[in-house]
Amino acid sequence: MSDFIAQLHYRTPQEGGRETPAFSKYRPQIKFDFDEMQTSGEQTFIDKDTVYPGEEIKAAIRLAGVIYFRGRLAEGMLFEFLEGPRVIGTGKILEILNYTLKIDDGSTIEDN
To answer: pLDDT per residue over 44-82, tens digit each?
Structure first.
């Protein structure tokens, strides 16, 4: 089961991104600004199987570290995805599907 839906932007090689396309089910590391912790995040592309450097795509994301991020995510939150130390793209959470991940203190992303 996917944890959230996100809008992803893959950087071009000139921006430090990949030289080659990525395929649905790709699993880069994901990092949120609020923490140094990274986790693997499987990207299942919506309405497409392949994304090329410089393109944007919607994807369902499944996190490996769900327990660590419990109660810490919000719709509208930004994140980076990486290959090793290299940031290859950015994302924005559009919809949280796994409600155990949702910030549960009543605040919104604008409050944080």
So the answer is: 999 999 999 999 999 999 999 899 999 999 999 999 999
pTM of the entire structure? 0.90
pLDDT for the residue numbered 112 = 44
**CA pair distance 89, 42, nearest whole angstrom:** 14
Pick the CATH number of 4-111 from 3.30.70.260, 2.40.30.10, 3.40.50.970, 3.40.605.10: 2.40.30.10
- Domain coordinates of the chain in residue numbers? 4-111
Structure tokens at 58: 């919607």
Strand partners, 59: 6, 45
Q: How far apart are CA 32 and CA 19, in angstroms?
A: 24
- Only one residue has tokens 């393109």, namely 55
